[in-house]
Amino acid sequence: MQKAFFSYLFSFLLLFGGSVSGQKYVVLSTGFDASNVPPAPDYSLKDTWAALPDKDDAADKIPLKAPVKDGQKDARADVFFLHPTIYTYAPQNQYIWNADVHDEALNNMVDNSTILNQATAFNGSARVYAPRYRQAHYYSFLTRNAEDKKQALDVAYADVKAAFEYYLQHWNQGRPIIIASHSQGTVLAKRLLKDFFDGKPLQHQLVEAYLIGIGTAPDTFEFIKPSQSAEETGGFVSWNTFARDYTPTYYKDGLSTAVCTNPLSWKLNEDFVSKDQNKGGVGLKFKFVKNAADAQVHQGILWINKPYVRGRMFLRTKIWHRADINLFWMNIRENVALRVENYLNQQTK
């Protein structure tokens, strides 16, 4: 019994980004080489999308025992979802700084992690479009060589831009749009919002931007502002999750001045919100977890007590980055529904 319990706990830590020992990462020993990048994706092919409304994919799933269903068939809005960095390991082929969208092993990891656990939060009220893209290696965010980082992220953004343009031309047809992202996806989503939405005609179709897992300053955009309540539309929300009383070493690199939305109240104040207001998260084996976590904004970051799961007394995790969406899955889902409804009501006035 004890062995089974610790196996469960270890699996929980892996799923939610906990650390059993010190955090480790792969160092890329060669600089970015523009002549050695994977071929650009063709977004007319379904294989270059992790999720599409008419494709059987992980974004269609519903957590075990969750009291909801996939609503994409009747959804009145779309979500363009940009997944986080999954390319974190030592390169397995000739492509070093950016991943190949035809890498089957990596695609399986993307689909069974972020698409399953994160993109599904949006399938109740929106058709899910999630492009595969030549994601920059995790080391791009750690290197001191700013040019290597820039070039790797430029490759990734070129794909995101191309995918969004294909979506607009072939599928949108004037429908309301949600932009949702996590981590590297948020870095790219901010560029996308500036290029296509901020002060441009397409901003009128923006329901909300969920810019999660990367510090986002209140003045990131000229016309798209931080939302201050659950009901507002046309703005953005953002948060980064850590253990209560913990401040990361990189706090002053953008988090200290970041917008922080409490995903249990959708307010920007620092009021504590108990787990009773948490409608449910997603846990091990894609299982629905009631009252998964509490939440409190603290000077630009989101603090939580240990998640209310089996074995919580053994959790020592300080950085809950990978669980930014998992822990608040149902609250995000209900908030998307509310904002979509409010947006549509505003259009009929």
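Next protein, fold it too.
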Amino acid sequence: MTQPTNIRAEHLRTALQLAAQGVPVLPLRVGKAPFGNCPACAKNACGGRPNMKQAGPCACPRPCHAWAAATTDPGTLASPAWRPAWRQAAAIAYHPAGIRLTVVDLDHADAIAWAQAHLPPTRTLPTTRGQHWLYAGTMPSSHGVRPGIDIKSRMAYARWLGPGTGTLTTLPDAVRALATRKPAAAHPTPQTITGPVPAGGGACPHRTPAYLELGMVMAVQRITDAREAVHATVYRTFLAVLSTHGRCGCLTDTHVARLFTAAQAKGETLRHCTDAWTNARARLGL
């Protein structure tokens, strides 16, 4: 559903107010996903801002590359190049490390209960399904550190939900440890798909490196280019890849990781990726 103009204008006004306070911000599309690369920056042609460790506007300047597009420059935020994004914006995101914060994203009630039992209290904000716990300090971001828990800090973005309530606590070792000790249940590794040898004993045509690589590039690009219905696009892409390559033993963990990485760059969690992959395999009987 298209948002009223006054709501979209309010997002820009809020973004400019946050930028004036030193908070690097960017617009989000429906589904809480960042806007995709502009033509000039497609496939990181501009130099690959996501590989850099500081937030800042792209050289184009358009809201590309998710977290790396976050900026405090009002001229960039209100520039003609960014107007199409603000006209479609459904929310505002910020770069937590840009203001020396780490966000522990708790996705459901069980995750909140675990945090209450194991992490020191700090400033919190309600989300659609759970809570954000904010800590003072930065660390590497990591998805799926526990069931329903993501860490968003460096090279990541989080939805702006307000200043929060409670006293901000210094980033504890208990949170830092989450990124280095992931329980097996929270970080399932996609298994290599195996299948029967083709009739006649000949080599599987999918093993041709160029054929398989082209399929992977097209699949990753399809996810990257998704402008809406990201969940559905990820599932359909996984289904298409598995229907072509899932029964002949071509797919390896490396291939699956490429798909998961593309999906997570669009805002999908590791849990969502794993569920979509599992559901696609089940539908195909793999």
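About the second fold: The beta strands are 25-28, 91-94, 101-106, 123-126, 131-136, 142-146, 149-152, 158-159, 169-170.
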